Amino acid sequence: MKYRYLVGAIALVMLFSSTLFSASSRFQGYDFKAQVIKANGQKYREFTENNRATLKVRPNEEYSIVVYNPLPVRVGVAVSIDGLNTIDGQRTTPRNARKWMIDPKSSITVSGWQTSKETMRKFVFTRDEEAYASWRGEKEGKPYARNMGVIGVAWFWNKAELDEALHPPQPFAEEMAVKAPSAARRGAPAPSAAKAPARAGTGMGQEQRHRVTQVEFNPDAGMFSVKDVLKIFYEFAKEPPEPMPFVDPDQEQNRFAPDMHK
Fold it and tell me: pTM of whole model > 0.90?
């Protein structure tokens, strides 16, 4: 198969525990990792809410997704945003999704929706009604927006290639029974989030040149089940209230700073 996110004098502050974001999933003995970065290269911070890790984002922020390959062989990676594949914009299963190729023990940065063999449109956080999934859903009359606010990453590889890389031929060495890595039991999937007043989605930003090519790849191992897919959740950060300076009724006429230019 071919594959080529102060009122008055009192400041109201809500505190969250946070860490620099890097999502990781243990699958079949390997740590698969992805992270979301800002346009300036900084990592987003991860906040824990409703027992799941969530990124706090703001409208019109451009972002990229860095995906790492922990295996000593090439992998195909299906990357979806808001339920749609980043290469062809389709809603498919992890098995059938078009995939990005990553070299052994390496990483790639996916920065936008691939719109042709030569171009892509930058990922940009936007309100749900302006998201690409909403546009596709209205255009085709399908519920594409139901997975708004979720980034999914699934890794795939060829078992024969991995076995050969892990156990290369050794002339004159005795044959030994080799055990395949045991599959580590994954934790329960994160619970679904309550519907937010204004959901965050991903739209299409500025166009950039991004040439891609197709390669032959036959994956027969990996995250074929949706429950195994690494999920990254994102939503809008809560906007602080507008500053409202304290006003003394007895000093009404002097409540603001004099303008030196008037």
Answer: no
